Amino acid sequence: MRKFISLTLTLGLMITFSFAQFTQGTKSAGGSLSWASTTFDGEAMSTTLSIAPSISYFAIDNLSASFNLNMNTFTPEGGDGETSTSFGLGAKYYMNGIYGGGSYNSSTPPGDDAEASATLIIELGYLYGLSDNVYLDAGFDYHMGMGDNKTGGMMLGLGVATFF
Questions:
Q1: Phi first, then psi: what are they for 6, rounded to 5°?
Q2: Is the dihedral angle over the CA atoms 103, 108, 109, 115 positive or is it negative?
Q3: For labelling, which of 51, 54, 108, 129 has a CA lying 20 to 30 Å from the CA of 69?
Q4: Strand partners for 31
Q5: pLDDT tens, 106-157?
Q6: Residue 56 near residue 90 (C-beta atoms within 8 A)
Q7: How far is Cα 78 from Cα 80, in angstroms, rounded to an integer?
Q8: Would you say 69 and 53 are in contact if contact means Cβ atoms under 8 Å apart?
């Protein structure tokens, strides 16, 4: 009976640890698309459209290095739209469909006299398998401005990621 329980536990752990395990050399492409509308006292104040593609490479098993791009278009009610772009480098560690990591983003806000700013992003998320190598990516990000950039915030998001 002990051998059966040991064998069952060992096989269960092997199956658990084999889920969403990515090997060295695996590549990933993914991204998210989001839209937000802000209202105050029932009147539209602004809309924001964000497009955030990313690519990753697994330098070692379960650890990816990534490059991401984030494009935001902010349109105040009755005004012209302004677009900001940020580029980032980061890393994520994956285990059993859960990942955690961080990235450093540098952005150029809209405007002629705007200065570039930096943001540190801490990420935590879960990959839900849709099919072989295609996952729904549900995550939580904490953004923290660095230097003169005192902005920060939290974000919940959904995206799609492919691994090949």
A1: -60, -45
A2: positive
A3: 129
A4: 53, 160
A5: 887 666 566 778 888 899 999 999 998 899 999 888 888 888 777 778 878 8
A6: no
A7: 7
A8: yes
